[in-house]
């Protein structure tokens, strides 16, 4: 018989599930963008889908590697390099993306309820594990929203290989939107 859940195990489960949902949304959005569109920013002051995915992968690796014992901003992280598109293919981008998320999910799977009140640092600032996790989740949600918006615009951009009317809604469709 399984013991009843407590708030700590419920939090860890919900956190993992929510991160998985955001990862899935980003992947479904990026899948609808033509290959050329992955590298196209909306304007000179925005990042492309590839850049956002590269930044997220780097951030996840940095924040969640040795999460309980080292600062979340690793000395070897090349944050500025995350904003330079070096991907040669969609497959290369997705492999890097997967590697970043794998670090997150492995760390979440290893966390115990007793870890939640431990103190970790992010850029030298102390955070409870709960706060650091919420901060990371908010960061992921912010960038996933960007990926979805850019992918939706580019999926229908004929200049980038898109097709008008091709976007498939990722969440609950509005009246008149196709699922």
Overview of this protein structure:
- Helix 1 (7-32) runs antiparallel to helix 3, helix 1 (7-32) runs parallel beside helix 4 (129-155) and helix 2 runs antiparallel to helix 4 (129-155).
- Strand 1 (119-122) and strand 2 form a beta hairpin.
- The protein has helices at residues 7-32, 49-64, 90-110, 129-155; strands at 119-122, 125-128.
- Strands 1-2 form a two-stranded antiparallel sheet.
- It is 50% helix and 4% strand.
- The longest helix is centred in the C-terminal third of the chain and has 27 residues, at 129-155.
- It is mainly alpha-helical and 179 residues long.
Record keyword descriptors for this entry.
two-stranded antiparallel ribbon; mainly alpha
């Amino acid at each position: 018989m399984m013991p009843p859940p407590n708030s700590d195990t419920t939090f860890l489960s919900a956190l993992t599930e929510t991160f998985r949902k955001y990862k899935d949304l980003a992947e479904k959005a990026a899948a609808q963008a033509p290959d050329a569109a992955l590298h196209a920013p909306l304007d000179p002051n925005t990042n492309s889908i590839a850049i956002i995915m590269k930044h997220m992968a780097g951030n996840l690796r940095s924040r969640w590697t040795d999460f309980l014992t080292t600062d979340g901003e690793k000395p070897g992280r090349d944050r500025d390099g995350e904003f330079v598109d070096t991907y040669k293919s969609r497959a290369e981008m997705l492999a890097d993306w997967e590697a970043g998320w794998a670090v997150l999910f492995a760390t979440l799977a290893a966390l115990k309820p007793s870890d939640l009140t431990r103190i970790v640092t992010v850029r030298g600032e102390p955070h409870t594990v709960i706060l650091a996790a919420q901060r990371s989740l908010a960061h992921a949600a912010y960038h996933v929203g960007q990926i979805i918006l850019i992918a939706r615009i580019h999926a229908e951009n004929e200049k980038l290989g898109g097709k008008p009317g091709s976007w498939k809604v990722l969440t609950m469709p509005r009246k008149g939107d196709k699922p």
